[in-house]
Every structure is written in structure tokens, then in C-alpha cells.
Design a protein that fits this description.
120 residues, mainly beta, 7-stranded mixed sheet
């Protein structure tokens, strides 16, 4: 059974940084593509970033966020810099299964999410 546990969320001022972690068990992060999504209040869950043979980013976070993984720790990361109030959301990590990395249905296992709040 695959389990994903996110951590690292919190409250930060605009312009600040946070690093989210996603600890995986039951599957090695190096053996599969993985992604980060987020869901703001009253909005649909949206793609943030993905990592496979390459890295992919939503236009809204490109240049500010970096996705990476530590195979030894079996952990996925999302380094978030220059945070904006519009980045406020619950952030989820997920394991890629099939299809286009941009869409939720391409992922088959999800974590419980971690809250990121950016104050102005």
C-alpha cells in the first residue's frame, strides 16, 4: 500500500519561502513520476509541478517553485520562494500513474495535504 505524507506547510508573509516535503512509503519516489497539486478555498484542485524524466511547472509558479526528490530519503520536495497571497492553498503530493501529468486523473495515490497560507 502506497502512503504519502506531506509536511512543511504553515503561515508565511508574502515574499517568504517554504519547503514542502512528501514522505513516501510503499513505493520509491525514484521509480515513478510524482506531482504537486493545490486547492484554494472555493476553487478546483490545480496542477503545480511534476517530476519524471524532467520537471514541469504551472505558469503561475514557474521561476518561483522547484520540485525535487531525494531518493535516499524517499521524499519529494517543493521549494517555494517569493510566495504570494494567491499561493494560499492546501498542497497535495501524488504519484503519477498514466496520462498527461497536468491532470489529476493521471495520478493514483494522494497524500492528505498540507496547508500553506501566505499573508499580504
Amino acid at each position: 500500500q502506497v502512503q504519502l505524507v506531506e509536511s512543511g506547510g504553515g503561515l508565511v508573509q508574502a515574499g517568504g519561502s517554504l519547503r514542502l516535503s512528501c514522505a513516501a512509503s510503499g513505493r520509491t519516489v525514484s521509480s515513478t513520476g510524482m506531482g504537486w497539486f493545490r486547492q484554494a478555498p472555493g476553487k478546483e484542485r490545480e496542477f503545480v509541478a511534476a517530476i519524471g524524466r524532467s520537471t514541469y511547472y504551472a505558469d503561475s509558479v514557474k521561476g518561483r517553485f522547484t520540485i525535487s526528490r531525494d531518493n535516499a530519503k524517499n521524499t519529494l520536495y517543493l521549494q517555494m520562494n517569493s510566495l504570494k497571497p494567491e499561493d494560499t492553498a492546501v498542497y497535495y503530493c501524488a504519484t503519477y500513474y498514466s496520462g498527461h501529468y497536468y491532470y489529476e486523473d493521471a495520478y493514483n495515490y494522494w497524500g492528505q495535504g498540507t496547508q500553506v497560507t501566505v499573508s499580504s
